[in-house]
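USER: My hope is that you can spare some time for a protein that puzzles me. I am handing you a single protein, as its sequence and its fold in token form. Walk me, if you will, through where the backbone shape changes along the chain. The protein I mean follows directly.
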Amino acid sequence: MKNRMKLSALVMLMLPAFVQAQQLFTTPELAATTFAKAVINQDEAALTKVLGDNWRHYLPDDKADPEAVARFIRDWKVSHKIEQKGETAHLNVGQENWQLPIPIVKTDAGWHFDMQKAADEILTRTIGLNELSAIQAIDAYVAAQQDYYQLDQQYAQKFVSSEGKKDGLYWPVTPGEAPSPLGPGFSPAQPGMGYHGYHFRILTAQGQDAPGGEKNYISDGKMVDGFALIAWPVEYGETGVTTFMVDNQGAVYQKDLGEQTAEKVNEIKHFNPDKSWEEEQQ
């Protein structure tokens, strides 16, 4: 099973108009302390000096998370330490020992924050978190379908109900009314937006490699013989890598479909995890 890492990001302030050299430090501890002080004081000039004038190239605005700043400051005050391996060091903070995704590296001139390596680490963490979120969403889908069946003695063939109906897993409710089996996240308001970096599609049949063999879940217009789902990254290599499938048994299967993930997923019409798919060990 892939290592699925947690993601946190620090909000960064606007880059000043002037350009300056990145600050060097005699120890990684001094680098970390200077960085933390700049964040705590919201000192954009000091922050730019510590990270370098081109840090925004590696940490654009869409990576910002204001809540993460508050968590970092809180955790820094609880505890902070440097974890060093050779000429690379990381800052760990808080009781959970969360690691800042910006490595501090040593050169002949001194220690400095390496923003290019930070971009790689953040991407890796983003992918790991999105894949974990996709699995959690898949589990929620399975539970929602089971709840929907209890209401209507059939499984839902779509995520969002038609206006004024309850023919999907989600429908708006009024105060005091019982919630729908699933929230609206699987069907974002903006096409192509995805949910935590993933697209989802309901499958209404299964192939010969699925448990129980080939069959159509729909009979007389109703999906009563099972259900399935496929989830794939919105942007392969950017928002995720792995494609997932699940059926009514709840076992999640995974596979890396490569750069042509979107095209390959478009051809998948059945839940059919052959030997090339690996069962996810949750």
